Amino acid sequence: MTWKIQSINGELTDKEFSIDRDMLIGRHQDADILLPFADVSRRHAALLLKDQGLWVQDLKSSNGTFVNDVRIEHDTLLKDSDILQFAGQKFSVLQPAKTVEEIEAATAIPPVSTIDSDPIQQPSEAIAVSETAQEPVQEKTVAEKMLEQGMPDLKERDRSVQLAKDGMPQNVGIPKPAPIPEGVDVKSALKQPESCEVEIPATCAEKELETQKNASVGLFSLIALIIVAIIAWLIFK
Prior knowledge:
With about 240 residues, the chain is an alpha+beta fold. The termini are far apart. It has a domain at about 5-95: Tumour Suppressor Smad4 (Sandwich). The relative contact order is 0.07. Strand 10 (about 85) and strand 11 form a beta hairpin. About 25% of the residues lie in helices and about 20% in strands. The longest helix is centred in the C-terminal third of the chain and has 35 residues, at about 200-235. Strands 2-1-11-10-7-8 form a 6-stranded antiparallel beta sheet, with no helix packed on it. The chain has 5 helices and 13 strands.
């Protein structure tokens, strides 16, 4: 990584100096960064690179070395945009831009082996609820059990039972009916219940008699008309 310092005042304004190694700052001709000014000491300060960081060290200069307007006595770590001053000469510290490889290394996801692979522990309360909250088992009905068992094979049936050609069993005894308990009259149990007479209301009976009477009168009238017609036919004939 290469740091830079840029002059922000005096004759060297906007001039940049690259710091890619430990460098000596001063007015002497052997200095790595030559500052030919009377207020700058011959061996004024040193810029040191440690673990990719930039440090400044004052070499007991006469007019001092400053970081952000504070005179330093010991080695001081510099940051981006700090104001570095040697006597009356001021410089702005420029941190080097990170390379693509450094950015990828900083943002890289750690391998799977480094990630904690312990399974997520569920709370004991959640485990207890999941174990106890089971659906009740419904007992199967007799019909469902018979369907699961199916019809027994002929080989599994009683071998003493012989089958005819049509598949009907032979020599199978018919069970006797259960005995009738004493004191039970079978005939009385088989008797038909007596019919109940339904009473017809008086108004309905009167209407029925009137209807029958009218029918009789109409029948007699019809017979009389037929007789009169026959007599008239005989007379006029």
